[in-house]
Design a protein that fits this description.
This protein has two domains: 149 residues, 3-Layer(aba) Sandwich (Rossmann fold); 127 residues, Rossmann fold (3-Layer(aba) Sandwich), CATH 3.40.50. The radius of gyration is 19 Å and the shape is globular. Strands 5-2-1-6-7-12-11-8-9-10 form a ten-stranded mixed beta sheet, sandwiched between helices. A two-stranded antiparallel sheet has the order 3-4. The longest helix has 20 residues. The chain has ten helices and twelve strands. The protein is an alpha/beta fold. Helix 7 links the parallel strand 9 and strand 10.
Length: 288
C-alpha cells in the first residue's frame, strides 16, 4: 500500500526543507506518492487567468500568482525527481487562499486523506522573527486530526525515528503512524523513549504497548530499541538523545489527559511546542 503525503511549498525555493527531507529520508520512493501544494496569497488585482499546472490548479488566479506558484512547484518537483522519485508519483496542486493558509492546508489535508502533511521552515532567524504568526505554529495550535512533519532545518544523512511515548492515546497514535510510514523503510530503526520519574514497571508497560503498535504495522523486532530514562527534564532529555543518536526525526503525540499526571500534562502540547521552537537537524513528527 502506497503512502501519500501532502508537501507544502512556498516561494522561497532556496529553502525546500520539506522536499529535501522527504527525498533523503524515503528509500522506497516507489511506495510513496507526494502531492506538492502551493497556496497563493490573495489580494491580487490583476486579471485572472487559467494556470497551466494540470489538473488541480484553480482558475481564479492572476498571471503573477500562477507564475510564482508554478516556479515553486517546479523547483520542488525537480528536487524530488533528482532524489529518485518517479515522475508519476509526484502531483502538484495550486490553490488560491480562501480561508487563510492554515485552514486551506487543513481542508486539503482532510479532503485528500493524506497520511501526513509535510511542512518546511525557512531557517532559524526567520523562524524566531515570525514565531508569533508562523503557519507551522498556527497549525500546531489548531485541532488538527492528521500527522504533521515539520522540517525546520533538517540535516541529511541521518536515519531512524525517536518516538516519545507516555500512556496517552495520542502517543499510541503517533507510534502507529511511525510504524505505518516506516513499514517498507528498512534503513530506519525506531527507538521508543519514555521519560519520567515513575515506576520502571509502568514505563516498560507503556513502551510495550507502543511496541505492539509498531509490530502491528510490520516493524521487525530487530528494528526496535526500547529506552526508559528517569528524568523531570523531558525536553532536554529528548534533545540529548536526539543529538547522541543522530535521528532523522522525533515523533510525539499531543492532547493527553490531565488525569495522567505530570508527564501526561507535558504531552498536552508543551513538549511538542518547545521542540517546534528549538529543534534543528531532526524533523518533528506530531499527531493528536
Amino acid at each position: 500500500m502506497k503512502r501519500h503525503v501532502l508537501l507544502t511549498v512556498s516561494e522561497d525555493t532556496s529553502a525546500l526543507h520539506g522536499a529535501r527531507f522527504v527525498g533523503s529520508f524515503v528509500d522506497r520512493k516507489d511506495m510513496m506518492e507526494v502531492t506538492l501544494l502551493y497556496v497563493a496569497q490573495g489580494g491580487e488585482a490583476s486579471k485572472s487567468v487559467t494556470c497551466t499546472i494540470p489538473p488541480d490548479a484553480e482558475s481564479s488566479l492572476s498571471a503573477s500568482q500562477c507564475a510564482r506558484g508554478q516556479t515553486a512547484l517546479d523547483a520542488a518537483r525537480q528536487l524530488l525527481a533528482a532524489k529518485g522519485f518517479p515522475e508519476e508519483n509526484i502531483r502538484t496542486k495550486l490553490l488560491n487562499k480562501r480561508f487563510g493558509t492554515v485552514k486551506d492546508i487543513a481542508r486539503e489535508a482532510r479532503a485528500g486523506f493524506y497520511d501526513a502533511v509535510v511542512f518546511g521552515r525557512r531557517g532559524y532567524n526567520l523562524f524566531e522573527k515570525t514565531l508569533a504568526t508562523s503557519v507551522s505554529r498556527e497549525m500546531m495550535e489548531h485541532r488538527i486530526d492528521f500527522p504533521l512533519w515539520i522540517c525546520r532545518l533538517p540535516e541529511e544523512n541521518r536515519s531512524g525515528v525517536l518516538v516519545c511515548v507516555d500512556d496517552s492515546e495520542p502517543a499510541m497514535r503517533i507510534a502507529d503512524h511511525v510504524g505505518f510510514m516506516l513499514q517498507t523503510e528498512a534503513r530506519h530503526a525506531v527507538t521508543l523513549l519514555h521519560v519520567g520519574t515513575g515506576r520502571r514497571e509502568d514505563a516498560e508497560a507503556v513502551i510495550l504497548k507502543a511496541e505492539q503498535q509498531l509490530k502491528a504495522n510490520g516493524i521487525e523486532d530487530h528494528r526496535i530499541r526500547r529506552l526508559a530514562i528517569p528524568s523531570t527534564r523531558v525536553v532536554n532529555t529528548i534533545q540529548d538523545e536526539l543529538s547522541s543518536g543522530r535521528y532523522a526525526a522525533v515523533a510525539v503525540g499531543r492532547g493527553g489527559s490531565e488525569s495522567r499526571g505530570m508527564l501526561g500534562r507535558w504531552f498536552m502540547g508543551s513538549v511538542s511546542m518547545r521542540l517546534l521552537e528549538t529543534l534543528e537537524k531532526a524533523v518533528l513528527w506530531v499527531s493528536r
